[in-house]
Amino acid sequence: MPKSREQNQIIKDERKEAIIRSATELFAFKSYKNITIDDIAKQTKCSHGLFYHYYSSKEELFHDIMNHSIKEISKVINISNSETNPDAKLSNIIQNFLDILKNQEDYLVYILYMLLNLRLQEGAIPKSKTKNANGEKPVNRHIYDLIIEGQKQNQFLEGNPKEYTICFYLL
Fold it and tell me: Which residues lie closer than 8 Å to 62 by C-beta, 6 or more apart?
């Protein structure tokens, strides 16, 4: 019996998700400019033809990975939004990230590695076309604003919130 359009769409979405998750590991440990379509095909266990069925280029896949990563990291941040106290919010965010690392949720760990790796490659990656889910502010801006809010409430040390945000990511 032939598959329905809905069934075919589910299969297509699942395959695309599998490509994104697998390629994220590749981008976590290899520089963007040194990754080839052949590397991606091997990592994701798909043919070049199947890759090009879903993506027109490495850059398009990269942007899809970044958009997907933003959504995943935003979930971790948003878990902490139930708190009103900046100190408690930041503590929850840190605890959520530590739980991810402790539980070895590989995909999210790869996202964190990839983001760090990309930070070190600044200028070697394509301009971002990423969008935040539901128009949310970027994760780094969320942390930055949280630090400013904590400073205003005398919960955090005075100083440059941009530098503190960078320190947060170096943890």
Answer: 27, 32, 125, 126
